[in-house]
């Protein structure tokens, strides 16, 4: 058996000149903009990208001129390969992105050129949503059918892993490290912040909300439930109703209540990108300051944290044992 792992994430613009084409690809996704007629959806995507371009460029300019997501994902892939090698498995890793380089089709081409015969498809979205994992799976199924149907390839799809014990442990450890920076760690309010999705998707059966809630509860179990905590949502786009409460509103309300110590946990994000580096660290930090929150801190995204990489390795090993 020659195993491989395809890690995939959303992707992000690496330069300011990438922002508009990135936005166009993002909003062309039928799971993001639910317009069935493709020409109309692409027209809307172009209009949205044009309208949002300057604002988004301003955000990326404030975090260094581009997203670090590709670099961080490639580092995760390298660390995963090393961890699996240390555990006795020679596994080739591949990286693909839904909306920017290296695109999923580029990853599939690399797989086609390899001698891999068992493939684990592992989304870097712990909690399943049709807007992320579901969208990526749909593209990958089409690509694999078109380009690899003649290749003998056993594929294991990992739809979600919100309960994976070592993943939960990695977040609990990261939270404990940050809590030590507060004068009284037990008084810090832990605010879990997840990417929002339209409420309609949840009503239609998307498990994202329930899986995210479960992850939060498991993390708090690990922490011994010593702190007040709650779950909120960020990154709303468009006029439809999205999951609430919004992280920005909760931060403002905590300030009004006289809460001085707030620790934000990016629970649905495993890598730093625009939502953590700009939205949480810059935009929401300003909201916290204006609201009177004196000590506002954020848990770093997991990135290549050794415990998190061990979690990914365990997921891969379990998947390969099933396929073997």
Write out key terms for the chains shown.
324 residues; single chain; four-stranded parallel beta sheet; Rossmann fold; alpha/beta
Strand content: 5-15%
The overall average pLDDT, rounded, is 94
The end-to-end distance, rounded to whole angstroms, is: 8 Å
Would you state the CATH class of the domain at 165-298? Alpha Beta
Number of helices: 11
CATH architecture of the domain at 165-298: 3-Layer(aba) Sandwich
List the uncertain runs: none
Instruction: Please bin the fraction of helical residues.
Output: 40-55%
Instruction: Return Rg in Å.
Output: 20 Å
Q: What do we call the CATH topology of the domain at 165-298?
A: Rossmann fold
Structural class: alpha/beta
| Strand order in space, largest sheet | 2-1-3-4
Shape: globular
Tally of extended strands?
Answer: 8
Characterize the largest beta sheet: strand count, sense, and whether it forms a barrel: 4 strands, parallel
The H-and-E topology, N to C, reads as EHHHEHEHEHEHHEHEHEH
């Amino acid at each position: 058996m020659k195993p491989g792992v395809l890690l995939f994430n959303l992707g992000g613009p690496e330069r300011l000149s990438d922002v508009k084409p990135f936005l166009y690809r993002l909003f062309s996704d039928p799971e993001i903009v639910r317009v069935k007629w493709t020409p109309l959806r692409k027209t809307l995507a172009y209009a949205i990208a044009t309208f949002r371009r300057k604002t988004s460029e301003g955000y990326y300019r404030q975090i260094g001129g581009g997203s670090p997501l590709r670099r961080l994902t490639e580092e995760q892939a390298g660390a995963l390969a090393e961890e699996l090698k240390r555990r006795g498995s020679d596994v080739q890793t591949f990286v693909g992105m839904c909306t920017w380089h290296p695109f999923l089709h580029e990853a599939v081409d690399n797989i086609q050129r390899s001698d891999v015969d068992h493939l684990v498809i592992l989304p870097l979205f712990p909690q399943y949503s049709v807007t992320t994992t579901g969208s990526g799976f749909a593209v990958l199924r089409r690509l694999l059918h078109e380009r690899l149907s003649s290749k003998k390839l056993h594929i294991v799809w990992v739809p979600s892993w919100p309960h994976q014990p070592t993943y939960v442990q990695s977040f609990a450890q990261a939270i404990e490290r940050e809590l030590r920076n507060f004068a009284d760690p037990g008084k810090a309010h832990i605010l879990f912040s997840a990417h929002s999705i339209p409420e309609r998707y949840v009503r239609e059966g998307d498990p994202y909300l329930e899986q995210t809630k479960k992850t939060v509860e498991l993390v708090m179990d690990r922490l011994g439930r010593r702190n007040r905590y709650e779950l909120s949502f960020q990154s709303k786009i468009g006029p439809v109703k999205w999951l609430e409460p919004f992280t920005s509103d909760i931060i403002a309300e905590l300030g009004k209540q006289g809460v001085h110590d707030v620790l934000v946990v990016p629970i649905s994000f495993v890598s730093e990108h625009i939502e953590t580096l700009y939205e949480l660290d810059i935009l929401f930090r300003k909201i916290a300051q204006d609201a009177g929150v004196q000590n506002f801190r954020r848990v770093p995204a997991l990135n290549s944290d050794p415990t998190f990489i061990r979690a990914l390795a365990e997921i891969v090993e379990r998947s390969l044992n099933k396929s073997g």
